[in-house]
Design goal:
Distance between the termini: 25 Å
Oligomer: single chain
Strand content: under 5%
Number of strands: 0
Largest sheet: none
Helix content: over 70%
Radius of gyration: 19 Å
Order of helices and strands: HHHHHHHHHHHH
Number of helices: 12
Length: 270
């Protein structure tokens, strides 16, 4: 959002035509995602899939340059690390594939509920902004009394999910509360994002499925982090209609090409 907004302002000041504005907004988005998640390739594909909505050389070149330059600046002036760390993950057995498909279906179902709730809240956007801010704050605060972890971006909680330190009952409660709070807040027109909350929701679903897999089939089930990462990718793909960007994000985050096969399976199901 920040990258897109900055470039949108620049394009408006320069009175650029619509196609140039769209490419500049895509550049801001690609650069921001590249440096925030340490996933430059996923940032490029996300911008082309979601914002430019077509693959052309004219569009690709500036978006790639933006992602590369943002990554360089992030590594020079920052530590170059992603906002969450993912341990090495591998698929233990092909017998896990049904569980991975189930994870994809679960992510798709939860995403569908999220979109329905968001659309139900959209008519409320006609009310004054002060009323909507108060309503969103009261709803989020009430849910946070039960699950404080829904506040903010949730990446600290996501790191705990990756380490398998949260119980399944808590994860299910977190999913429900985060889904309601985010869908209502976005539907009310608040300036919040979709990617972060849905990454947390998908990660939590992956954590629940991995726990059940370890309980039922401990000899076949991989490390919980694998399911958490696949859940993140499946949720991102479903909510944004960006399957290729989500797949590349998972590969770049894990730095392991072998997870591409199960992630593709989950994304298709989602």
């Amino acid at each position: 959002h920040l990258g897109a907004a900055i470039n949108s302002s620049i394009a408006a000041r320069l009175s650029l035509p619509n196609n140039s504005q769209r490419i500049l907004i895509a550049c801001g988005t690609a650069g921001s995602i590249a440096v925030a998640f340490n996933t430059p390739l996923a940032g490029v594909i996300f911008a082309m899939e979601v914002i430019v909505a077509e693959y052309t050389v004219v569009g690709f070149t500036p978006v790639i340059l933006a992602a590369v330059s943002a990554t360089v600046v992030g590594r020079v002036f920052g530590d170059g690390a992603a906002i969450f760390s993912i341990p090495p993950v591998y698929v233990n057995s092909l017998l896990e594939l049904p569980l991975i498909v189930l994870l994809g279906v679960a992510c798709g179902a939860v995403t569908a509920v999220f979109i329905v709730l968001l659309k139900r809240c959209l008519p409320l956007a006609r009310y004054p902004v002060a009323v909507r801010f108060v309503g969103a704050g009261l709803l989020t605060g009430s849910l946070a009394v039960v699950v404080p972890e829904i506040m903010g971006m949730g990446y600290d909680t996501l790191n705990l999910v990756l380490l398998g330190q949260l119980a399944p009952v808590f994860l299910l409660t977190l999913i429900v509360c985060k889904l309601i709070a985010t869908a209502a807040t976005v539907g009310l027109g608040m300036p919040v994002g979709l990617i972060g909350p849905n990454l947390l929701i998908g990660a939590s679903l992956g954590g629940v499925l991995s726990y059940w897999g370890i309980e039922w089939f401990p000899q076949y089930t991989s490390d919980p982090a694998l399911y958490v990462v696949i859940g993140m990718g499946a949720s991102m793909a479903a909510v944004l209609n960006a399957p290729l960007a989500a797949l590349l994000a998972v590969v770049e985050l894990t730095q392991n090409v072998s997870v591409a096969f199960p992630t593709m399976l989950a994304i298709v199901a989602a």
